[in-house]
Structure formats: C-alpha cells, structure tokens
Amino acid sequence: MEFRGVLFLTPPAGADAKAPSAPSAAGTPQAPTVIRPHVIRTGTLGIETAEPQKALAAARTAAEGAGGYVGNESTQRGKDGRMASTLTLRVPGERFDAVIGALEGGGKLLNRKVEAQDVTEKVADVDSRVKSQQASVARVREMMDKATALGDVVMLEGELSRRQSDLESLLAQQTALKDQTSLATITLAVSEPPPPAAEKKDGETGFGDALAAGWSVFTTVVRYLLLALAAVLPFAVAAALIALGFRAHRRLRPAKPKPVAGPTWVPRQEGAAPAPVAQAPGTASRPDPDPDSDGSGTDREG
Fold it and tell me: What is the pLDDT of residues 122-135, one digit of tens each?
C-alpha cells in the first residue's frame, strides 16, 4: 500500500464550532447554544495602615475563604523604617468584587484599579483549533498503522511529530486562558504611615532655624551681588578698553613745540622804581640808561 504523494489537509480553525446545527429528528431546529462569556479580571489595591501584619492576615483569610489562594508575597523595609508588603491573591471570578471590597476596609485607601478583558472569542478560537488538531493527529496515526513501506513510515512520523508539537502549543494556550478566566488576580500593597513630625511650640525658634535663616539670607545676597556684577561687567570692560586706547594715543602723539617768550614793556609810574624788563634768552643784560640823560650819552642840565 503506497502513501507517496498523499496531501494531508487540515480542516480550517473554527470549522467545527461554526458548523450549522443539525435539525432534530422531528425536523424542528435546535435552540442556539448559549456561549458563556470568558473575562480576565485583574485588580490593584493600595492601603496604608499602622498594623500591616493584621491587614495581610485578613487578606489571606479573605482569599482562602473565597476559594482562592495566595500567589506571591514580598515584604521590605525602607530607609525611613517603614514596612511595605505586596501580596498577590488568586480568587474565583464570581467572588472578585466581594474580596476586593473586603480588602478596602483594611486601612486607608491609597489607590484602586480594576480591569476586565473579554477573551470569549479567543477562548472559542483556541478550543476549536485544539479539536481540529487532535483530529489531524488521529488521522496521521491511522495512516501510520496502515503503512508498510519504510519511506512512508518515516514521512508519517515527521508529520506526526510536527502536528503533535502544534497541538501541545494550543493546549498550553487553552490551559493559560482557562486559568486566567476562572481565577481573578488581585495585587494588594500594604504600607505603614509615615512617622508624625515633631510639633514645635508657638514662637519657639531653635539654633538650627536661625542658622538656616542666616544661610538663606547669605545665599540670597550673594546671588544678587553676582547678578549685579554680571550686569555691570560689559560696561566696565568697554570703559577699560576706551581708557587704554586713549592712553596709547597720547603716548604715540608728537609733542607740541613751546613758544619763545619776547621782551615785555611795563609802564613805570611816577616816583616808582623801574620794573624789571624780561629779556630774551641769549641776550646780555645792560644797565638802564639814566633817566636824566637824553640818550645821547650827555647829561641834561636841570
């Protein structure tokens, strides 16, 4: 019996789910099948309480009482000494609202977020593909039972391995969807409140306050001085450049010649001594002529 050249056809996904319902024996059509919705519900809750251990114990009790369980739990203490814990709860979807409502009363509510994702179509598609792949694997097994040639057996074994791998992947998706839709996930964050700040008496000022106030004033003054210096600096630089240029111009400019002073005649008053006469440089001084002489070298008679 030869199987070479045989084409293996896989029915399209969803073919079984979309097939029309067969009429009943009486000829009347059957009632449509009611599809149950599949919804993935997740919630995030943050509360603040002075008794975090008590709130965590109450959350565990609420999850186990609803038929769920605690998934993950982590606790850490911050630098300020405050403890913060995170708890992951898995509860049935129909008890989701009741459990998250009970958790809100465990302390001061900080945040709350609830999400719902409808995956009904995805669940139906995966279920249909799983059925089709299971039928495909069964057909290949039947062919292997009837095969006699070694080449046909080797070819069918390779095809069977590939189809089984696809089937296992679909089964994993189906299991994950079933887990997500049957159990909702709640993430609870519990933290301690911050320590109360020490209250000061009215009008009381300590050394630290005075030091902080003084430092604030000092930094403010320095900042304004720097701003003023930055505003004046361009003008100061320009003035310095102008002064340097003026001094260089005066050094390079030739000096002006000094004027030569000539003789100056000063009128003499009656009965006053003769005023000195300025002489030009380089001329010898000579005695003043006698006022009684006529200038010719002979004395006038009175």
Answer: 989 999 999 999 99
